[in-house]
Write a structure and sequence with these properties.
With 282 residues, the protein is α+β, with helices and mostly antiparallel strands. Among the domains are: 75 residues, 2-Layer Sandwich (Alpha-Beta Plaits), CATH 3.30.70; 60 residues. Helix content is 63%, strand content 17%. It contains six helices and five strands, in the order H-E-H-E-E-H-E-H-H-E-H. It has a five-stranded mixed β-sheet with strand order 2-3-5-1-4. Strand 2 and strand 3 form a beta hairpin. InterPro entries: DUF4349 (IPR025645). This is DUF4349 domain-containing protein. Keywords: Membrane, Signal, Transmembrane, Transmembrane helix.
């Protein structure tokens, strides 16, 4: 009896040991199978394309064509204001542009010149030779975004007008025709406005505006006024300046002299009349 129990215990022990070994093996196998599957499920890191030589990573290869509207303001002093304005107009015409608004006064003038954008610097150089430059400014406005926006909206509006016209051709009733024509008129007006805006932007990019201010002023002589002739010229100028100043003072005092001279003349005439009878009586 005791021997049977011992044998039964040994058999049960062997069965338990073999079951634990089998379970451990199956778990290891499952882990080995799951590990490749997990590795396969993970996405491989993306490889970035090698950047071109001389190009920064992340920067588009094609360069954006910038649309720039350029303008300038130039102020000069010239001995002959009218002649300077005439030469400025000729310079603009020769460059392929034209002269716009002009305002001329006694000792100054302002004229607006419109020239091709690629000729702006050359024309400014010619205008700077008209006299002494006192002010020179250039303004640049980047209108690239405006141009792109208008072009996009223009394409969309053209497609919209085309669709409405197609609907108008298929309309059968008077009410449909009236409603579609009203909508077509509105969209065509918007299309014309966008076209005008596109034309204005293109003009501001293609042509540049120069505002030229010319003021009367003596241009500095290239040669020094030295020597006998220089001294003679300086003396003559001083004499003219003195004569001009004296005449200016005389013109300013003349009205007051007239007012004083009238009472003096009346007093003198009366005194002469009184003196004459006294002299006759003696």
């Amino acid at each position: 009896m005791t021997g049977r129990r011992v044998i039964t215990g040994l058999v049960l022990g062997l069965l338990l040991v073999s079951g634990c070994t089998a379970q451990s093996g199956s778990e290891n196998s499952a882990a080995q199978v799951a590990r490749p599957e997990a590795g396969a499920g993970q996405s491989a890191p993306k490889q970035q394309a090698p950047a071109e030589p001389g190009k920064a990573p992340g920067v588009a290869v094609g360069q954006v064509d910038r649309k720039l509207a350029r303008s300038a303001t130039l102020s000069v002093k010239a001995g002959d204001v009218s002649g300077a304005v005439t030469r400025a107009r000729q310079a603009a015409t020769t460059a392929g542009g034209y002269a716009g608004t002009e305002r001329t006064e006694t000792r100054s003038a302002t004229v607006t010149l419109v020239v091709p954008a690629e000729r702006l610097d050359a024309v400014l150089g010619e205008l700077s030779a008209l006299g002494e430059v006192t002010r020179r400014e250039q303004q640049v406005e980047d209108v690239t975004e405006q141009v792109v926006d208008v072009d996009t909206r223009l394409a969309s509006q053209r497609a919209s007008v085309t669709r409405v016209r197609a609907l108008l051709e298929r309309a059968t009733s008077i009410s449909e025709i009236t409603s579609i024509e009203r909508e077509l008129t509105t969209r065509e007006a918007e299309l014309e406005s966008l076209q005008a805006r596109q034309k204005a932007l293109a003009g501001s990019v293609a042509m540049s505006t120069i505002t030229l201010n010319v003021a009367a002023g003596a241009v500095a002589a290239e040669d020094d006024d030295r020597g006998f002739l220089g001294g003679l010229a300086a003396g003559w100028r001083a004499f003219l300046d003195f004569g001009s100043g004296a005449l200016t003072v005389l013109g300013a005092v003349a009205p007051f002299l007239v007012l004083v001279a009238i009472p003096v003349a009346v007093w003198w005439v009366r005194r002469r009349r009184k003196v004459a009878p006294a002299a006759a009586a003696e």
